[in-house]
Amino acid sequence: MSNDPLVIFTPSGKRGHFAVGTPVLTAARQLGVDLDSVCGGRGICSKCQITPSYGEFSKHGVTVADNALSEWNSVEQRYDDKRGLKKGRRLGCQATIQSDVVIDVPAESQVHKQVVRKRAEARDIVMNPSTKLYYVEVAEPDMHDPSGDLERLVSALRRDWELPELEADLGALKTLQSALRKGEWKVTVAVHLGDAVFSPRIIHIWPGFYEGTLYGLAVDLGSTTIAAHLCDLQSGEVVASSGIMNPQIRFGEDLMSRVSYGMMNPTGSDEMTVAVREGMNALFVQIATEAEIDRDLIVDAVFVCNPVMHHLFLGIDAYELGQAPFALATSEAISLRASELDLNLHPASRVYLLPCIAGHVGADAAAVALSEAPDKSEDLVLVVDVGTNAEILLGNKEKVLACSSPTGPAFEGAQITSGQRAAPGAIEHVEIDPETKLPRFQVIGSELWSDEDGFDAAIAQTGITGICGSGIIEVIAEMRMAGIVDGPGLIGSAEQTGSPNCFKDGRTNSYLLYDGTDSDGPKIAVTNTDIRQIQMAKAALYSGARLLMDKFGVDKVDRVVLAGAFGAHISPKHAMVLGMIPDAPLDKVTSAGNAAGTGARIALLNTEARAEIEQTVHDIHKIETAIEPRFQEHFVNASNIPNAVEPFPILESIVMIPQVNHNTGGGGEGGRRRRRTR
To answer: What is the CA angle 282-288-293, rounded to 5?
Structure first.
């Protein structure tokens, strides 16, 4: 084992040992980490900015000392003086490795920018926002009937619009008199209509008739990405959508790693709160710039998130969520002012967080329940929000059950040898020819397949950089259908499988997907370790769903809904071959896209939906997988591809999965052939 310092890069998860004094940029390049630089390491371009993280990282088994990188040098100081570096940032070409270190590569320093795919889904929503605009004509002051300008404004609103007795935020009160006089006693006011926490009140005043609109944000705060949809509060239109990587990734890719970081480091929880709020504000600047609006026009925001993100965003230590009985500080819906969360929106902007369902089933699952409404379904529907932590709902009009499963980051491309997050150049779709056992693929940024004319030209700018989550799912499922990988997850040799792309890789075999080494590109292969990572992730997902089916007393479901940004890009057939989801007709497996984001939009644009989901959450039956004895049994069975015990008759009527066993040392096909179903 090397005595050189261990360097771990996030969010890629790539790691390696490097000699003391090695520049961070050099280490990144040798590991194939996506870190930009155009000035040849001279400290001029600033493209290679990185953020070192300090403290104890139990997941990685390292403690990062304050002096893990070399001291701040004159080149960095010169750049900081001239252009400024964000607090905590270093230049990767200048900082050198001194001891074990965890280094985050922020999105703006990555050559291949992440494609955050949490787009807004088309949906008809009844409009009833929390804040509305009202135009009124106000009586002028009278010496014979003295009263304050505010009182006469409130009286006019009550007279013309039947609004209740209103108060005014201090910011609105400060501008009231000038607005009335500039508008010749005609004004447009923004009124927050009140909720369980805030009384109805005036939050902004414009002189005369204001022809513009107000905006709100629906935000899906995920473990890996933060996605926001900017909505017109009058029309309901999604004006702009944008997303960023969650900056907390540098503290841990999965939720329990972040909880552990907070436990092991005295200021860890506060650091993560600051990081996510700063990231949120950066996203708001980005989305307002894209929409070409003033952030002061954003007067409402709805957030959905899992329980750990919920607590860390609010500034609550998530310690209790890391141990049984996984107690939440509160599971109720929360209404706050944006300023209480250090969010840079309108000074009087309100924030609403949907209720959490349980300690491991959060407000994001509540938003999915609001969007997909399993409680209103005639047939039995399984809703799976696929992500780093999968939320699962099963129900119909009779009842709804919910649980979560810790799938981990493998579905996001992390912990996979050639894995990466979705970005241009990443392999996202794969097919393997059943006869030749050779692959072809598509990459993000091009619709052409790798064996089609024009493919090389189409991907010339991005290249082929790795394989993202949907790609790794498809290639492993294709390998299973081609007999390249067996049920227990072992990749066969070239002799056993008949595939020239299988090659010896240490004590096991790997499957070559792409070799770009002749042109200084990467060699992308699927290893047995990759198979194991996906097996663990999909087994956790399936086991959660199967446990809910046990509780419901059923062996099959009528339909399956794949929710989440990642779920929208999963092929139902490949997911079923892999054994991620229960056996069901493929036409009954549909995608809901970013259902959590859709639920957030519904709650943003229709305040009556907030009361509805609060009641629905109270009625959902929560199942805690950690204390269910059958979960482990299901997990072991589901580790096979597709399953060691449970039959998949519908799937088997569509594809023939070879019954091969590559642990025997024998050659040949080792099983039956299956027909092509494309």
So the answer is: 150
pLDDT digits (tens, 9 = 90+) for 465-514: 889 888 999 999 999 999 999 999 999 999 999 999 999 999 999 999 99
Token pair, residue 112, equals 């291949």
Other beta carbons less than 10 A from residue 550's beta carbon: 16
DSSP 186-215: EEEEEEE---SSS--EEEEEEES---S--E
Separation CA 384–CA 588 (nearest Å) = 14
> Could you give the percent of the chain with pLDDT greater than 70?
94
Q: How far is CA 548 from the centre of its chain?
A: 24
How many Å apart are CA 153 and CA 139, to the nearest integer? 8
DSSP, res 251:
G
Closest CA to 540 of 382, 367, 419, 403: 403
pLDDT (mean) for 333-357: 94
Q: Which has the closest alpha carbon to 110: 244, 7, 240, 226?
A: 244
**Percentage helix, strand, coil, to 5, in the chain?**
35, 25, 45
Contact 466, 523 (CB under 8 A): no
Output the pLDDT for position 670: 44
Furthest-apart CA pair in the chain: how many Å? 105
Q: Enter the tokens of residue 581.
A: 């989801």
Beta bridge pairs of residue 606: 128
What is the token pair recorded at 215?
Answer: 């905006």
Residues 323-337 pLDDT 10s: 878 888 898 999 999
User: How many CB atoms are located within 10 Å of the residue 80 CB?
Assistant: 15
Q: Which residues pair with residue 504 across a beta bridge? A: 509
Element (H, E) at 50: strand 49-53
Residue 290 backbone phi and psi in degrees, to 5: -60, -40
Closest CA to 218 of 250, 245, 241: 241
Residue 292, Cβ neighbours under 10 Å: how many?
8
Edge-to-edge, what's the strand order for the sheet holding 131-137? 131-137, 186-192, 201-207, 167-168
